[in-house]
Sequence to fold (192 residues):
Amino acid sequence: MKKIVLSLALMMCALISWGQSQLIYKDQDAKTGLRSFGTSDIIVRNGMTDRHPLKVSLLAVESLQGWSYSLNISVAELTSRAVPEGSILLLRAKSGDVFELANTLSETQSRDWVGQWIEGTASKTYDNKASYIITREQLEALSSGVLKLRMQLSGGSFDTEYKKDRMGAAIKAHLAAIDSGISSGSDLRSDF
Fold:
């Protein structure tokens, strides 16, 4: 009986932590006091048969003009291929707005050269990366829900229509983590 209760408790802890975003990168420029924050990856799948599961994270960088954001996406594939620089990501928000973003990573930065062995098989998975500059307003619109995604890769593109709002939920969790870091008041000028 103890084993069953312990197993259920461990499963509940895993479910609670699944889908939560954490700040894994915090930096502050010693000279200017400007800050940067990066979040952990959240895996976004559209069911068990999803051929292109994504890892989604967010980077926020402070400048004298304000905050700028980058939406980082890793595509798990069985081949190592770059997401071409300037390739397009289309996102349809629940509001009906369509956002078009362009990849800023070069092909050598984007391509996963090493990969990771899939246990028990003779196959590897590769996390091919892309980074898209995005505005705060676009992030807020997408955090209310993402219906469809189209991502351009080398050699084609793929579409994903989300039955459940996993992408919007991931973006919402990342925004909450970034906002908690920003509001923590740990910059050079706070409480002066």
Residues 1-18 have pLDDT under 50 and may be disordered. Residues 22-183 form one domain. The radius of gyration is 18 Å.
